[in-house]
Amino acid sequence: MNQKTSYEQPESPKGLAFIPFKLEYDAHKKTGSFFVPLLSIAAALVICAIFIAVNGMNPLTVYGKMVQGAFGSSFGFSETLVKATPLLLCALGISIAYRISVYNIGAEGQFILGAIGATSITIFMPNLPGALYIPLMMLAGVAAGAVWGLFTAIPRTYFQVNELITSLMLNYVALLLLDYLVFEPWRDPEGFNFPGTPIFNPFQMLSNIGSTRLHIGLIFALIAVVIFAFLLAKTRWGYELKLLGANPIAAKNAGIKINKHILIVMMLSGGLAGFAGAIEVSGVAHRLMYGISPGYGYTAIIVAWLAKLNPFAMLVTSVLIGGLIVGGYSVQTIGLPSSFSLMLQGAILFCLIGGDMISKFRIRRKV
Fold first, then answer.
1. pTM of the entire structure?
2. H or E element: which one contains 26?
3. CA 108 to CA 298: how far, in whole Å?
4. How far from 314 is each of 52, 193, 332, CA to CA, in Å?
């Protein structure tokens, strides 16, 4: 049942008439309109513009510089797509879990495990035929991310442990595992003081598209979007996910096994983030190294929420946030740190959360 709470104007101590309306909050009201994300972005731009102006700079100049850096040249746009690729895959994974109200914020750790899994093929299978490397690396990345997702799903399913806590804590475990591997057993002995594995050989690298750093991992991500959209719209599994997300009690009464779906969904969620990690290590870094992820798993939460969990809308929002990251590098030339893009991302997230909350209120006249 929908829970609604009314917030009514209290009576004036001087005996004035009641204000003839009330605010009614519906926690289950659908906020599918894309006006909320658009207004959230606009509000975030205005808030950050105030900080820019306080620091004595012209907000339009700063935003123009970011747009020019991210989309104003073939190089800038290709770099934006390089950043958008892992964001898109992680956001897809996050959105699967969110559809049944499982809040996976562990995509960062699952991404790192995917990169570790892909690299393990190059470490432990150095003499494979060249054509086998990329398929096995991708499969290993997906499997590692899926297993890491299960580490969140199993406590949630069988012991009622909050997945927010476990998925967040596992991010730090994954990060420490990465640090151990690149500083100790997998460290390149010829890499001097650089914490990373040896550079992959050409058979272990994803092919580039043209003369840029953009690689065929983008094609893999686009295929994943199409498959995900098809599964949601055209399969029984997709219908069950929708029913489970809309009304868990009705889904349970209809015979849908909720625990089974949580396990499958978290495996898929982790697997997609792990796929992103495998693509990043093979297509961009070409080695497993310290700081392999600049926070893709966390940033992907913004990508998924802005898109309202719509897989095709994530194509747009991943490019938007990818451009925001690349544009952040450009503002260094006019005196702002590249971390300004992080501030803007945070402002978008806060405005998006606030916009979703406000959109669940209804103004009604008193009877």
1. 0.90
2. strand 21-26
3. 6
4. 29, 39, 28
